[in-house]
Amino acid sequence: AFLTGAVAPDRPATVVMEMLTEDQAQALETFRTSPDRSAESFGKAVSWEKSGWPDYAIYQPIIEAALKRSADIRAGLPGKSATRAIGKDGLSALAEDQRKALRLAAALPEGLAAELKDEIISSHCDLLPDAMVPNMMAVQRYRDAYLADALRKTPAHGPAILIAGGGHVRKDRGVPYYLGPSDGAAVTVNLVEIDPERTEAEILADAREDKTADYIWFTPKIDRED
């Protein structure tokens, strides 16, 4: 809905995707100048099947909507080598001016850092060695800050729409945390799966208390393998 016209339909839009990295910059540029600019050909152009993300069929409707609106589709994350460097050495792998430009010079507030640590550990099924946790946290912060910077670099005269995972888009410590007042208004929409064992009243009560998003879009729950 946001891509097809709900947001500033009279202005050109930019779509920034977490699923695309700077390693695919040339592939994206080739696609932009290709006579065959379809959603189907996009997946092939960026070699989606080698990216490690789920089946392209899940994302193809987003690309279709973006192309229908003539939106500029951009990579949101850095290349793999830059991310690996953070995973090895933490944020010290970045030069001081890079940390400042990405707004990573200051430490994450203690409470938010504790939440991020818990999320990193639980998302790895509590199997992550303790020594790896700090640098994994640094990688998450780097990605959040880089996605925010990618949004800052979009044209000011049109809306920028970020497609990213729930951890990245949360307002308290995700991408919005690294956006400043001069970057324009940011609105977060979080997709939340409905637990069929919970009542509607319980679900809505939690949604009203949720401070990590401006809007919540409820979706059916999907069973996943451990």
SSE run = HEHHHEHHHHEHEHE
Strand content of the residues, in percent? 5-15%
User: Which percent range fits the helix content?
Assistant: 40-55%
How does the overall form come out from the CA principal axes?
A: globular
Q: Radius of gyration over alpha carbons?
A: 18 Å
Ends distance: 32 Å
| Spatial order of the strands forming the largest sheet | 2-1-3
Query: Which class best fits the helix and strand makeup?
Result: alpha/beta
Question: Could you give a short account of the major beta sheet?
Answer: 3 strands, parallel
**Helical region count?**
10
| Mean pLDDT across every amino acid position | 91
Which segments are poorly predicted (pLDDT under 50) over 5 or more consecutive residues? none
> What is the number of strand segments?
5
Task: Describe the overall structure.
The chain is 43% helix and 13% strand. The chain has 226 residues and is an alpha/beta fold. The strands form 2 sheets. A 3-stranded parallel beta sheet has the order 2-1-3, sandwiched between helices. Strand 4, helix 10 and strand 5 form a beta-alpha-beta unit. It starts with a helix and ends in a 6-residue tail after the last strand. The model has no long low-confidence stretch (mean pLDDT 91).
